[in-house]
Amino acid sequence: MRHLDTDTLQRLRVWSGEHSFPRGGDDGGGRRRRRRLRRVLLVGDRERAFGALSLVAGDHRSALPVGICLDREAPARPVLGGFVAGLEDAARMVREQRVEEVVLTLPWSDADRLEACLAVLRPLAVDVHLMPEFPAPYLAGHGFALLGDVPVARLRARPLKGWRALAKAAEDRLLGALLVLLLAPLMAVIALAVKLDSPGPVLFRQSRTGFDNQAFTCLKFRSMHVRPPEAMPKQATRHDPRVTRVGRVLRRTSLDELPQLFNVVGGSMSLVGPRPHALAHNDHYSRLVDDYLCRHRMKPGITGWAQVNGHRGETATVESMRQRVACDLWYIDHWSPGLDLAILFRTPLACLKGTNAY
User: Fold this and answer.
1) What is the pLDDT of residue 205?
2) Residues in the chain with pLDDT < 50?
């Protein structure tokens, strides 16, 4: 048994379940087209072929399995009404069943079997795909790429790269700087009020988890009385005695977050993104909530999709944190400049409601 060479792999169109069989609907040019089932023949290993059969047959909108050709353990003659046959019957089945797509259900490492199947299929006017050796959901939305001459399956994609990364950076730096200038008078008034209300510094600095799970110093207007640092910081609750008079107003309206505009201009935060949590909270919830640390695949934000959907302020239960994380992950997967602008426009209304913000 030998491994496939690059030329052989590049001759194959690799089947990922999501990308191979176009669905009815938009044809890519904005036009609607009639849905038509693609006629599919499965060729190769018995166990893999019947496993793939359940997946292809379950897609009633685009694919119609018309047969299985086994390269080994093939029946002496076609069975199940001709549905299952041997590799030598593949050409006949392609012609008789008007097959358009052939899916090879073989181990990627078994070059001999793949070459034997390709030798039969090359003369035929069909598309040939190779089924992955790992579950199709891992490939959903990501597909395949070439690293040099090496074909690879992309299991995870960076949320921001290329023009998307440039657009997000420009949005943060330009809008962030503009907001600093526009809100400077308001921030000066708030700073004076904090200073006159209670002893202590105007700004509160706390290490929080940012992009790529790296710590950074997050800035806020101080809204609590000065106290010794705690190993496990407690979230503010309703009627929390630690909160100052001015701080209560600032927290309810989220005006205490305004100094984070300097974090944005400095590059450690974004205007929009998952909210950063204290390091101790991060360690705690990462053990309780699946994919919690995946929030940090983008820079943390002053506001976010979770905050404008009712998940701001205190997270009193693990379930409330799960809901917040679900919103954060949805935002990361669906980011666009338009989504950021929509969140920014909705943020003032969410702040005025004061839900869960103490």
Assistant:
1) 93
2) 1-30, 32-33, 358
pLDDT tens for 39-88 read 889 898 888 888 777 766 665 667 788 888 888 877 766 666 668 888 88
H helix or E strand, kind and range, residue 68: strand 63-70
**H helices of the chain, where?**
6-11, 46-58, 90-96, 111-121, 163-197, 245-253, 260-266, 279-286, 318-333, 337-353
> Domain end: 108, 128, 153, which one?
153
Whether pTM > 0.70 for this model: the answer is: no
For residue 313, the model assigns a pLDDT of: 72
Is residue 158 situated within a structural domain? no
Q: Within a domain: residue 272? A: yes
pLDDT at 141: 56
What is the C-alpha to C-alpha distance for residues 61 and 35, in angstroms, rounded to an integer? 7
> Which residues partner with 353 through β-bridges?
none
Place of tokens 């008034």: 189
| Domain span including residue 68 | 6-153
In DSSP notation, 245-277 reads: HHHHHHHHHTGGGTTHHHHHHHTS-EEESPPP-
Give the end of a domain, one of 122, 153, 184: 153
- Domain count across the chain: 2
Please tell me the distance from the alpha carbon of residue 249 to that of residue 53, in angstroms, as a whole number. Answer: 61
Q: Which two tokens stand for residue 299?
A: 């820079």
Cβ contact 23:62 at 8 Å: yes
